[in-house]
Fold these 3 entries.
Entry 1:
Amino acid sequence: MTSLPETTVYVRITQYSWTMGKIAGEIEARNYQWQFQWRFREGKLLVNPTLGRSLILEPLSRFLERYDYQLELGGDYQFTVKSQF
């Protein structure tokens, strides 16, 4: 039985404003790098650049929704995706 490939995703929170309803930061996975902005009151997650965005959008959304209250400005976080980037 072969195991699924895994990729570690690193997240850094660069902006956090509860009053504005926004969390922003940087994402890195293998050779990909993105900037994100999560407008949680509007339910919008923006990820740029577009290259590889479809790979990270859903896993990042799940991570942010699960840990949103635990995230801090300047914090470094990581999670694992069951796919290879």
Note: Helices lie at 53-67.
Entry 2:
Amino acid sequence: MAGFRYLLDTNILSHLIRHPQGQVRRHLERVGEDSLCTSVIVACELRYGALRSGSKRIGERVQTLLQIIPVLALEPEVDEHYADIRTHLEHQGTPIGHNDLLIAAQARHLELVMVTHNVREFQRVPRLPVENWIDE
């Protein structure tokens, strides 16, 4: 997928917005911007959070960030991963939130590393590599 290696979750991008020179920025510089992307689901969550906050500054930062980092649409094949992951997690008695499920299915379909601060949920997804760029 166009050289992408990492799919950034909402909490990672939110951290970058709040702490532009923090740990996440150092990781971005290490791996290179060309290896990064995010999901349209993440973009929705970021825009919702900015609008709900009522902060023009946060809205502008979200807008700028989403112009820099590629936002990937969901592809039809994501549905198979979604069904597989959801069934597995429900059988284990450890479901995850619906948005996180869609993000995980997209990352797994594209064979990307899921970068999130919400490691506990995403690590339960089989065959999904997970990294946390905040607590390293």
Note: The chain has a mean pLDDT of 95.
Entry 3:
Amino acid sequence: MTKKQYNTLLKDIGLLLSEGRRQTFQTVNNILVKTYWNIGRRIVEHEQQGETKAEYGSQLLKDLSKDLKIRYGKGFSKSNIYLMRLFYLKYEKFQTLSGKLTWSHYSELLSVSDSLARTFYEKQCVNESWSVRELKRQRETGLFERIAFSKNKLEVLKLAQKGQIIENATDVIKDPYVFEFLGIEEQYQFSEKELEKRLIDNLGHFMLELGKGFAFIGSQYRITLNNTHYFIDLIFYHRILRCFVLIDLKLGKVNHQDIGQMNLYLNYFKEEENTNGDNPPVGIVLGADKDEILVKYAMGSISNQLFVSKYQLYIPDKKILENKLKFLLSKKNCDK
């Protein structure tokens, strides 16, 4: 046996072991999830026979926690048992559960009070293979609300039921974008160049915030018109939409010149950079603030796919986002 043949054998065995461990973990996880669901079901059935409903501080949960820990060890804190009960109440049909999600995923999802948001995050976990850490980060930054702001009620319901399905440019736009992973304090004075560098240095986090389908092409992309050089801050290619995505960063409030300049970049890319199979490019002017009225009039006659969004350096208040979305949905209902 040659060295090459031996290395191939070793690699194949490694792949088999990895797949076997993955399948073992998945099987054990599915059994654990089903067991906890059944425990929740038994608690609810017990309540329906006359017991007082087991709110978080109830004696029933305290007694169960104490006795189960004595008999079966760790994993039966009062909060965990409460989650098992809640798990059954939120997912009364076991068949609706995904075999791809762990108990830790469901524990995090159960803390989402709004059913639409919870369903959205569940679908996204499955569609994009989020870790629990990714799920927590997206929840904390209000991803559902930030995507939903630009949609009508039917689109929000579709978003919640199926997750984010990318079919056109508006599906990849958020407002605001959240860059808390940069670790920049709000009062810190920084330049556009520094902001751009920090985003590139944290490209993995940045790509997660942008969403599914983005591939990084480069920064400070130069285009030349009549011997004048222009530099686009960030260039991506979106694999699903099959188009370039151009991003310009602005420290302050976006003005009409910023919008006009991005429109110039988009026209250039359509003529000079697109090749067969590429769809029209998308442009995002990303500023610390924007004037909605100015943006409306500045973009009034623009036919290109151009968007203006805000970014912020801290995690937004989820309650404010939730209340804003509820208001917009009720307003859209009234408008209908």
Note: Residues 15 and 148 are 41 Å apart (CA to CA).
